[in-house]
Amino acid sequence: MILSIVNFKLPKRWTVAEATATFNLTAAKYFRKPGLVRKHYYISENGDRAGGIYFWRSKADAEACYTLEWKNIVTEQYGTSPEIFFAEVPVSVDNIAEMIELA
Q: Which domains are assigned to the chain?
């Protein structure tokens, strides 16, 4: 599994309520996205950074999402271009399913 963290610095600080309202508008776009296992939106504690934490089946699935068009939409919507960090996920602990998953 591949983890990606999308991060962007906001032009003005947001509250959790502002982040929730904004992210709720885009969440449906990721429902049933090919290769996406899970996505979590986040806002930093001080409200100056936001983004998403994604779990993908493969890096190719992630890269298929992060197109130039996607980056332009994110930049236009949030006023700053996104940074994307990728990492392998060798072991996952799932306390809801009560299981440990190995890559």
A: 2-102 (3.30.70.100)
